[in-house]
Amino acid sequence: MADQEKKFSRRDFLKTSGVAAGGIVGGAMFGGVVGSLYSSQDDTQTAEPGTETEGETASSDGEPLDDARTYFSRREDFETLAAATERIYPEDDNGPGAIELGAPYFIDRQCNEFWGRNAREYMMGPFDYTASATHGYQAKITRAEMLLNGVRRMRELSLEDHDDEFYNLDEDTQISILEDFESGDVDVPGAAPGDFFNLLRSMTIQGVYADPVYGGNRDYGGWRMIQFPGPRMGWTNEIESEEFQEIEPEGLRTYQGGGM
Amino acid sequence: MAEELDRVDVVVVGTGWAGGVVSAELAKAGKNVVALEKGEEKVRSDYIGVKDELRFDNRYDIMQNLKGDTVTSRNEIDETALPIRSPQTMQIGIDTGGASVHWAGATYRYWPYEFEMRSQTIERYGEDKIPEDMNLQDWGITYEEMEPYYEQWEYMAGIGGEQDPLAPERNRPWPNPPMKETPSLRLFKDAATNLGLHPYQLAAGNMTENYENPDGEQLNACMYCSYCTRHGCDFDAKSDPIATVIKTANRHDNFELRHKANVRRVLYDEDENMATGVLYVDENTGLEYEQPADVVVLAAFAFANNRLLMLSGIGEQYDPETREGTLGRNFNGQYNHAFHGATGYFENEKFNLYMGAGALGATLSDYAADNFDHTDLDFLGGGAIELRQYGYAAITSSGNLPEGTPSWGREYKDTSLKYAYRTLTIWYTANAMSYWHNYVDLDPTYTDEYGDPLLRVTYKFGDNERNIGEFGIERCTEIMEEMGADIVEPGTMPEEFNHVYTGGHYTGGVVMGDDPETSVVNSYLQMWDVDNLFVVGGSAFPQHGGHHPTPTIGALAYRAAEGILMYMDEEEGQLVQANRKSNLI
């Protein structure tokens, strides 16, 4: 992973992969399109050799073995999701964006576990998601279903209004479509106005900043930008310090020691 | 058919500070005690190595799974209530130690005024000062009577602090010294001092030294790791029932703690007017059991204490139309009118805000209780103004955005990265009053997984909540300006209660008092008319004081434990003579 050179800008990658996904099927390309979206290192964000996100979990071509979809079955849905996360948390001079940080795969996995499946929510009826704007989650559908419904609506609108998949559109057009979802101008089946976007936004930010064990915040890229060092035994010796302490991030894997 | 188990002296429902304290005290006194915890067994090692913001702060790992049981909520008595479905908006502590494991540790006593709020308000300002829609009540106990129980709880819990310059002089000093002072706390204290206020270091349930409590339990000095509130401590360094009272109770063979024991009913003999035990489901097997007991102690969360009485047909349900009945009356809590204040964004200072502890903070009492003249103010009571340094991980810190900043996209990213650790918030922990129109009862539509009705909350702000909230925002803004923030943003008071139950400070419904016409339990938390049933916890608060509720719940639990022993060993029947005041009906 670390020795792969960046050859395109993030947006080029998105465009390229989108075109490729529409045009080529099978073989290395089939695996390579989305894979390559996530494998390129930003010039300023090079993974340190020996960090735990590579090595044991990387395949022979350097791609992380867990970079695969387990919820979003249709490639086009996932590419749309990925492009949207990048608009929410874009690559910039500060560092990597949502895609390079692994946020789309984070979201895909979250969809397939208790959060996405609403396993800890009260899901007994009657349901009426239109009954109140102040009672929090009232949808009959799960979070995962809401994301899927929303992503499908994004694709539908992109094709209707712009004659192309969302992930092929330029940044400004993508932003304007997302704004329509944010404001609630666009209906998403089963979701109250704005709820799909809010969910997409919060899960993208969580994918950027949650511990890397969940599949996002790859190589601590999110933590480096925000200068959060991750879990430690304690800060007794630093807590009174007048100066801000810039400390190299370490995650749960380091904290727990791994070794199983 | 439920299997009937062997009779015990006392069955305790819940294992938080309320149930934990009662269990420990009764076990120490040699009683046969069974404690029933709805959640899973948690031990210290469950919290070692799992410092994980997403899991505990965003996925609510140690909050109740709402799948089979939540609360419905509405503002008006003629509305249809909706269930609160997600732990994002309904957080109830569960598992061994209950909410007392994820608490932050902020420790205050309520003020003498707060325990006698009705009579002292009348004495100082006249009866007209109390709005007609407000059910303002005395607690049936005074601060002087509460003092020894506070002290008992504080020494058991190893609280570290310093004397609040405005509070009554303590009988004994805090058992431990205060926490360390950080640059952000110093900034707050200096600004408050400049304004003529009286800041001091917040008293903390985070240990400031290694400590052995009076029960012989060992606690360790806190290391300011920041994984504290909403987390369990990995180090016995935040006082909780696992490290203290549950451990103490477990040292006694006459104590047994059963987990995944979901109590569905208090068994009640109407002819004798006595509780005879409880019915519970073993959530591992689905089998039902009857646990007979001489004394039944409900010490669960306020919601569950209310609901179990209602489901069991014990007590008289409050009806807002007739204003009769006491059970479910005076439901209150620190909802979204409290904890507003001001946020400051600093261009030139960057603080180590990822370090911290649940109760690391600075506070002041100048605007608490009746410490300031209310003659010309349009509300009663007050609260603390606090600056806390909980320790903030990345997801939380990424939300520090000056007003007008987009919440996503290029500008969002750039701005959030800049201000993540340059943002300080101070807030007012405003008290919460009770009104005739706020109460809890059983929902007519939504049920739990067994088909039992959910508890329904009917709650809206009174004028006191709106006005005290605005007052707090103004005072906090003055302090934040003095702190020198480059951007000072006053908080915004919401229009109405928003059905968000995330702060944990929900209280009342089984309130204490000296008059059975306006209270359900006496000052020992013994139910009026059901002598062997004690209801312990925040459910007893007639209104919510202007501080975090936990220490008062702990102190009341010691009071209740004393009462239970008196009832069992000395004088059967009611421990307190009722003082009926028909003019308050």
Automatic annotation (TrEMBL), chain A:
Chain intervals for the UniProt region annotation (Disordered): 38-67
Entry keyword set: Membrane, Oxidoreductase, Transmembrane, Transmembrane helix
Residue ranges, compositional bias (Low complexity): 44-62
Enzyme Commission number(s) from the entry: 1.1.99.3
Enzyme class: oxidoreductase
Pfam families linked: Gluconate_2-dh3, TAT_signal
Domain of life: Bacteria
InterPro entries in the record: Gluconate_2DH_su3, TAT_signal, TAT_signal_bac_arc
Residues that span the membrane, as ranges: 12-38
GO molecular function: gluconate 2-dehydrogenase (acceptor) activity
Protein name: Gluconate 2-dehydrogenase gamma chain
UniProtKB/TrEMBL annotation, chain B:
Keywords of this entry: FAD, Flavoprotein, Oxidoreductase
Domain of life, source organism: Bacteria
Keyword set includes Transmembrane: no
One MF term in the entry's GO annotations: gluconate 2-dehydrogenase (acceptor) activity
Domain Glucose-methanol-choline oxidoreductase C-terminal: 438-557
Enzyme class, broadest EC rank: oxidoreductase
UniProt key word Nucleotide-binding: no
UniProt-listed Enzyme Commission number(s): 1.1.99.3
Residue ranges annotated for the Glucose-methanol-choline oxidoreductase N-terminal domain, each copy included: 203-332
PANTHER family: LONG-CHAIN-ALCOHOL OXIDASE (PTHR46056)
Protein family according to the UniProt entry: Belongs to the GMC oxidoreductase family.
Full protein name: Gluconate 2-dehydrogenase alpha chain
